Amino acid sequence: MTRFAPEHLQAWTRGQWTRRPDADIKAVVHDTRALVDGALYVALPGDRFDGHDFLEEASNAGAVAALCSQGRAHPALPCLEVPDPHLALMEMAKGYRQTLGGLIVGVTGSAGKTTVKDLIAEILSCRGDTCKTRGNWNNHIGLPLSMLGMLPTDDFGVFELGMNHPGEIATLTGVLNPICGLVTSIGEAHLEAFDDVAGIAREKASLLAGLPPEGLAVVDIDNPWQACLLEHAHGRVVRCSLREATDYTGRPSDATGQYLHVEDNRHGLSFEVPMPLPGSHMMRNLLLAVVVAREFGLTPQEICEGVGRFAPAPMRWETVKAGHWTVINDAYNANPLSMRSAVKTFASLERPVEKWMVLGSMAELGGGEERAHRDLGGFISEFHFHGLICVGKKAQWIAEGATLTPKYLAETLEDAAKLLHELAGPGSGILLKASRADKLERLIPLLNSEPQEERPGT
Questions:
Q1: Distance CA 114, CA 376 (A)
Q2: Phi, psi (5° rounding) for residue 56?
């Protein structure tokens, strides 16, 4: 069990206790709904809620102390007062990191980082106790909270780093201090805060620049921005590819693509790993995870065992039954890169024969959002689908770009459900993909029952 001495928390945050807690802290939590006995409650001010308003509730729920802004302590709890709780939380995690001895991996990218993080963690857990990012807690709040959950006895830690503004990856890397880092992909994600994709590439590459001299950078040389990644990697670099002979080379084992054939040219070994999900992007994700595992000394047998235990995070190519159809719920988030990967993978599936897509908007693309949506529509036209349903105003641009695909517009999810009930045959496959704000997964319950018919007089 993790235990934090009050004097260590004070030193790491440079705060002041209103009074010292009677015992060590057992956990650090920022949500009163997740509180456990012995926890430190972190009162974070936000745009919608202010954690300071819940200090008494935290005390009643089992918190034994709180981290709060100066002058906002609550008499029910020993409070560690600091000028900025957000900054103090990161400094707390940074201080705790210095006490940990496990090998820590940092993962970032425009798409695929949660999947790669989970794959690496599952594989490494075959060798020793492994901590990983909770869900997609990858920002200035989630990353430190995830790190504070790592046990001193853990052998490995695998953490995800996200960003939507310049400088965030470097800051998070400074907190995480990883021994190994990798970038899964680079594309038009969060473009509204950057001048161009080159700016995003430099931001992602700052993870590699922050590795220590003895650190390991895993670089996919198929990445169009590999030169930028290599330029920022000042320590040891291991390269991988699905196209070229390099340190690690991967390719489909056969036409079915059910296995990844790996040539480990650093150790003179080749082996096959089962594919956990379909798609060329998943093959690349798997190869990155395999490279990290091999560099940490895991055997092919351990790698296959870990991959066999992998389960995708919710709403990431999650297959569910709804009504007469099979729904692929990939609706957690979307950007041009992940949208194209999902469309291409869905098109490549042998079954179902009848394929429908329900797509929403892509957020945070700045002034290029209309072009990005129209370009996606043009990309969709390269494949054969039975129908494309575009939900919402921005998704209308996708429909306008999809000149060769049967397409339908829906203002609401209810409209989309009605269209599917009318048009999609039994046994059809339906892909859901959109940015998180669209909450496209709410369509699934609407597909589980026939829409109610309007009756006269109602």
A1: 23
A2: -70, -40
